[in-house]
Amino acid sequence: MKKDIHVVGAVIVSSGKVLCVQRGPDGTLPGLWEFPGGKIEPGETAQEALRREVVEELQCHVHVGEEFTTTRHTYDFGIVHLSTFYCELVDGSPQLSEHSDMTWRDPADLRDLVWAPADIPAVQLIEQRFGVSRSAG
Ligand SMILES: Nc1nc2c([nH]c(=O)n2[C@H]2C[C@H](O)[C@@H](COP(=O)(O)OP(=O)(O)OP(=O)(O)O)O2)c(=O)[nH]1
């Protein structure tokens, strides 16, 4: 049985752009892009975990809004249940610390990044919500 890993991710939108962060070269899913966030710790709500992770990773504070989507992806190391939430920056601006890189992207340009596989459904939903039209092919 693979282990279930409950992860929260922040969809931080500012001036129409979405914050994307790149995982470091070591560890799980090296170099892939993801939403800021991480594993929910025992006793935490998803929202509490997200606020904590954003402070740890980006040294800024967000208001966690409504849930965006929850999807599940099976990796070789476990089953990641990824819940993403709309978040609004309320204090400070994101500072790079644990990640290799960060970028604010227009929803139409998210696909240019190589995302963690678990994130693809959320990325597609962002495109839909922001009216990105994709021509076939
Ligand atoms: N934070 C975050 N993690 C994600 C996303 N998509 C995705 O598959 N993950 C995976 C990567 C990790 O296995 C796990 C989150 O773990 P984490 O960020 O709290 O901790 P970590 O890098 O130390 O993870 P690990 O090396 O211990 O597995 O979920 C995402 O969009 N954001």
TrEMBL record:
One of its GO terms (biological process) is DNA replication. Belongs to the Nudix hydrolase family. Residues 3-127 form the Nudix hydrolase domain. InterPro entries: MutT-like, MutY_C, Nudix_hydrolase, NUDIX_hydrolase-like_dom_sf, NUDIX_hydrolase_dom. This is 8-oxo-dGTP diphosphatase. One of its GO terms (molecular function) is 8-oxo-dGDP phosphatase activity. The keyword Manganese does not apply. Its cofactor is Mg(2+). Its EC number is 3.6.1.55. PROSITE patterns: NUDIX. It comes from Nocardioides glacieisoli. It catalyses: 8-oxo-dGTP + H2O = 8-oxo-dGMP + diphosphate + H(+). Keywords: DNA damage, DNA repair, DNA replication, Hydrolase, Magnesium, Metal-binding, Mutator protein. It is an enzyme of class 3 (hydrolase).
